[in-house]
Request: fold
Amino acid sequence: MIAVGASISLLASGCETTPHAAPARGVILGKVNNISGIVSVEAISEDGRTHRARVRSDGTYQFKPLPLGSYSLTFVTDCGSFDGDRVILQEREHVVGMPTKAADCIIIGMAKIEENLG
Reply:
């Protein structure tokens, strides 16, 4: 009985368990012009999942590690959004330049000036 138990434990210890390999991921990062009014960037994967990154005060943005694949970028401003280029994320890091399109956004303000007549 002891010999059988020892044999089974030796056999079990000889089995290798391979951990599940994590899916490959990459990072999309870029920079927009500070005066462009872009506040965030969306990366939409082929399966329709939307990932968002906020634009920092220096104009840079970076997505958390994303599964490798193809993403459509959308740049979001205070007054709308516009589509950017398609990015194929195949490497560890993909740098995106300035968007080739710009939003047509005009901000109109009004001020009332009162004179003190008294």
User: Anything to note?
Assistant: The beta strands are 25-31, 38-45, 50-54, 60-62, 66-67, 69-77, 80-89, 93-96. The chain has one helix and eight strands. The first helix runs from residue 2 to 14. Residues 3-8 have pLDDT under 50 and may be disordered.
